[in-house]
Amino acid sequence: MQKKRKIIVASSAMPFVQGGAHLMVDWLTRTLIDHGHQVETLELPFSPRWEDWLEQMLAFRLIDLSQHGDLLIAIRPPSYLLRHPNKVLWFIHHLRSAYDLWGTRYQDLPYSPEGLRHREAVMRADGVALAEAKKVYCNSHVVAQRLAKFNQIQAEVLYPPLFRPERFRSGPMGDYLLYVSRLTHHKRQWLAIEAMRYAQTPVKLIIAGKPEPGEEAYAAELRSLIERYHLGRRVTLLDRWIAEEEKITLLAECLAAIYLPLDEDSYGYASLEAHHAGKAIVTTADSGGTLELVQHGVNGVVTDPDPEALAAAIDELYRDRSLAERMGQAGQKRIAELGISWDRVIARLLV
Amino acid sequence: MRIAWFTPFSRKSAIGRFSAAVVRELARKHAVEVWYPKTGDPLRTELARVGFHRASDVDAQKLASYDLLVYNLGNHLPFHLDIFELSRRFPGLCVMHDFVMHHFFAAYYLEYLRKPEAYVAAMRRCAGARGARVAEDILAGRRQRVWETDEVAEYPMFEEAIRGQYGVVVHSEFFRQRVISASPVPAARLYLPYELAPIKSVLSRQQLGIPASRLLIVTIGHINPNKRVAAVLDALAESHDLLDRIFYTVAGPCDPGFLAELKSRIAKLGLEQAVRLTGYVDDQQLQSLLNHADLCINLRFPTTEGASASLVEEMLHGKAVVVTDTGFYSELPDDCVAKIRPQHEHADLAAVLRLLITDAGRREKMGRAAREFAENHFRADRYADHLIEFAWHMRGAKPLLQLADLVSQELQFMGVTKDMPIVETVSRECVQLFISGQEP
Amino acid sequence: MKLAVLNNCVPFISGGAEHLAEALTWKLREYGHEATLFRIPFRWEPPAKIIESMLACRLLRLPNVDRVIALKFPAYLVPHSHKTLWLLHQFRQAYDLWGTPFQSIPDSAEGRQIRQVILETDNCYLREARKIYTNSQVTSDRLKRYNGIESEVLFPPLADSRHFYCADYGDYIFFPGRITASKRQLLAVEAMKYVKTDVRLVIAGQHEAAADLAQIEAVIRQNRLARRVEVIPRFISEQEKADLFSRALACAYLPYDEDSYGYVTLEAYHARKPVITCTDSGGVAMLVKHGETGFVIPPEPPAIAAAMDALFEDRQAARRMGEAGIELLRSLKIGWDWVIEALTR
Asked: pLDDT per residue over B58-79, tens digit each?
């Protein structure tokens, strides 16, 4: 019987922007409580503006939690800087402008002496935080590679599981592919629509998800694509918030899930949801972290990021439903194979 | 880089001419605009210029588009007042043309702001309790105004000018050392560029009234006691066997009182045939004198300047120069100038003068070395390049300095005093997090 | 409107202020706003940590927020151009508790320096707020007296009152809340030495310092009060509390100089129970009308014992007073409509 612990789960948040980190924090908290531990969840405000980084990092550093709880789990930067004698990082991403986005057009930090200095300062501070941690975990191999490359740290991959995955069920297999995700350009819902132009079977596509703030134009773009290619009968766009129950039903009855983000850090909860519903995943070779989960021909299909290649894959699934089903079943096995479970998470985090 | 270059730009200002030369070089690679206070007669230039009347005319929006703000400061209030006030509001890179800034601040606090308590406070900031006492004594009439005496070198007050800036450029190493011991701000020493003012033609010795057979020895610039002319006269008098070989011309304006003193000394020492005091000379006369000079004497004690434009001028003319081994002068190579020790001024002067008067070869060799050094170092293009290098480095230091400023301000508003542990805690944290990246 | 509610927090300790902050956040959403709650850790031991916590708050940033509603020191120091304060209390150790046994900052040169910084900071930044509300007249008076700042009283309602109910008027006086020296559970226990009837006392709450609980247990032991005094030394759930209230004879709430009337008072009235409090309990007396909705008596164990006995002997009086209590709340407009309107005006 594991000893009951007093655990602080710490993270940061941009006010009113709820990313995946929030779910991780929330689910980790609930799971720890279910396991009988006492948990204090601390989400501190953080502005992503690079001009504000340094003073906020200093603020986090001045917040002294060292007398509280016997374990601190820090999830999102710069909560890694919080002081605690028994600190574990479940590292989900860097302040990316200073790291892997530096030198790309998404850089955001100016390429000036000031920008360089900010970059240097962030990297040094991260070095301190990483060295202080008793253990550093991260959420994917993509992130582990960045930690090794930029911070010379070997982090252990600890995949974030879904909360109460038994909510997801398998149902009678329908004739549509399902793309559930926030509507935003780099998720490439547009690529799925393009693929449907070349599909030769009667397969359908349902795209479900709310546009990110500021991306209503993207949603309109998707709609106009559907119209332009006369796909109105084959492609349905549900550009709104999808309730859990509705999502569960849509997943239960889909032929397979489709998920085509560009170079994402990790596989995304949507992929896990699909597998827990017993469904295969169609993805592309440039989707990044999704490839850690999806193995071509085993639990899904990995194609070139090309509409025709995607169409061929989709058609194949439509024609061979038993293949779709087999790969969907394999999804559950793959999850177990990768050790994606809360028991494992708790066992690893509670140092 | 987009640079705003704040400078006096009147014809009378040596700093204005300096700025014109440097900005011309900077403008080859960067977008530079000269911001100048509109006080009468500006230099003619093709450079992009923005004139302004008062510091209050300039607001943050106008300056927001520049990557670098450069402020040229000197010890003369009328020329630098508004530039100084702007530097307070919008910190940037400060080019300090004078080591002693006391005259500027005395005038600023006492005449312009009419706030004697602010002068005392400034002296306290610069020189502690001792400085504050001196200021109070001056205001109470208990002692002579320190800026009217040689003691001013002990209370230079340059610290006031650089407070809160992100970078400082000075033109001598001794000044740079003083800056870095006073402030954490990055500081660089650059060699002061100098361009000879163009003249129509060189006047002949005859036109200048120099006796044909004698060696011409020259001292130029504003003649005040720290130029040590009296000491030179004494040393010359001692070498009476050389007196009929030389002609010492002291070319520059002089206060009437001091002029009278010098004249009486010349008479007493019997040097009327060998020494001439010219009073003010124009550019043409000055450069012609330097042209014909066989030897220059450019002594300074105590040091008040950041560097010496007159010395650079003499070196560019390829002349051997006798200097005092102090401040900027110490920093020049020994083969380029003849240094005398201030503590052994009389003996060294007599010896060095005898050596250089009698040994033409040595004189000429030194002159050549001086010219080569000057031409390689006191150049606007080198200055511009090194300035940009330093600005780049300074801008890199800015984020942490800005953080320090932000935290200082927060602590100040909170009423935290310097002795409280939070001050040390915060600086330790910042160093550990952002600089050393290690456990302390 | 996008509103951020700011409160401070001590990890693993949750009390009335924390519940209020959560309730406020929920209510703001109920009334149609987007609201989020940030809890900023605050450490005050050793005293130098107070300054660190304050500076940390000054260096935090709140983007994408239209307005801030801040409840406590030092969370209200976080910069924002539109701050409304609903002060639950300032850092009392530097103000009215300074010079009392509860000041907690040492009266040394260092301690006085720290106190001075707190005063200066408050004087500087409290004025930045667009509007200041407080939870009680006592808090407003202190703000005026120590900082010269005007404020308006906005009574904090119960986060949720629907679960409180009245079952009957039993044989025990109920004293809920964190067990600390300043809440003075010890005083109620001392009173039990003097009671003449069979009235009992039930105390329930987490203790902050082990010494506080130890002292209570010692008095119980030394005076053989174990049968009359029940101590539940842990956090109790809302339902447990409601149940304990429902069968209580009355509520005792005897804190030293509290800023506001206290949630306990509201809870007691929602359970239709009278409240025994002390003349030096501060804001509590504001909501307890002596002889009408409860008793306001000197902080002396014999006097407290007498009040307990009086209620034990007259259950009807207890019922009348309890009813009068809930009626008093209605007449004072202590409710969320009023609060949300004021804070988002």
From this structure: 988 889 889 999 999 999 998 8
Q: Which CATH architecture has domain B205-378?
A: 3-Layer(aba) Sandwich (3.40)
pLDDT band at B438 (very low <50, low <70, confident <90, very high): low
Can you point out the beta strands (E) in A94-229? 135-138, 156-157, 176-180, 204-208
pLDDT at A1 over 90: no
Which domains occur in chain A, in start order?
A: 6-158 (3.40.50.2000), 165-337 (3.40.50.2000)
CA dist., res. A29 & res. A163, Å (int): 11
- Helix or strand run (H / E) with residue B34: strand B31-37
Strands annotated E in chain A = 6-13, 38-45, 71-74, 87-91, 135-138, 156-157, 176-180, 204-208, 235-238, 256-258, 281-284, 300-303
Q: What is the pLDDT of residue B288?
A: 94
- Is residue B411 less than 8 Å (CB to CB) from chain C? yes
CB-based contact A14 C63, cutoff 8 Å: yes
Closest in A112, A114, A124 to B433, CB measured: A124
Give the DSSP per-residue string, A322-333.
HHHHHHHHHHHH
| Predicted local distance difference test score (pLDDT) of residue B440 | 46
- The residues of A whose Cβ lies within 8 A of any Cβ of C are 6, 8, 13-17, 38, 40, 42-49, 52, 55-56, 58-60, 62-65, 67-69
Q: Is the dihedral of CA C257, C259, C264, C265 positive or negative?
A: positive
Q: Which of C60, C66, C68, C77 to mutate to test the interface with A (most CBs of A within 10 A)?
A: C60
Of the residues A49, A53, A58, the best mutation for testing chain B's interface (the one with the most B CB atoms within 10 Å of its CB) is: A58
Residue C285 has pLDDT above 90, yes or no: no
Matching residue, tokens 């050389």: B242
Q: Which domains does chain C have, with CATH numbers?
A: 2-154 (3.40.50), 172-331 (3.40.50.2000)
CA distance B34 to B390: 19
Reported as a pLDDT band with limits 50, 70 and 90, residue A343 is very high
Statement: residue A39 has pLDDT above 50: yes
Taking only the tens place, the pLDDT of each residue in C223-233 is 999 999 999 99
Chain B residues with CB-CB distance to A83 below 8 A: none
Is B404 an 8 Å CB contact of chain C? no
Mean pLDDT across A86-108: 91
Chain B neighbors (3+ CB pairs < 8 Å)? A, C
User: B2-189: which CATH number, 1.20.1540, 3.30.70, 1.25.40, 3.40.50?
Assistant: 3.40.50
Quick check: B415 and C48 CB within 8 A? Answer: no
Cα–Cα distances (Å) from B223 to A2, B13, B227, in that order, read 90, 18, 6
Q: Which residues of C touch B410 (CB under 8 A)?
A: 55, 58-59
- Contact check, Cβ <8 Å, B438/A118: no
What ipTM was estimated for this complex?
0.91
A121·B396 Cβ contact <8 A: no
Start-to-end Cα distance in chain C: 11
- Subunits close to A (at least 3 CB pairs below 8 A): B, C
Q: Which pLDDT does position B220 carry in this prediction?
A: 93
Q: CATH topology of B2-189 equal to that of B205-378?
A: yes
Q: For chain B, which residues make up each domain, given as ranges?
A: 2-189, 205-378
Q: In chain B, which residues have their Cβ closer than 8 Å to the Cβ of A50?
A: none
Q: What is the pLDDT of residues A277-331, one digit of tens each?
A: 999 999 999 999 999 999 999 999 999 999 999 999 999 999 999 999 999 999 9
C71's enclosing H/E stretch is: strand C67-72
Asked if C38 and A44 come within 8 Å (Cβ–Cβ), the reply is yes
- The 10s digit of each residue's pLDDT in B27-47 is 999 999 999 998 767 777 788
DSSP summary character for residue A157:
E
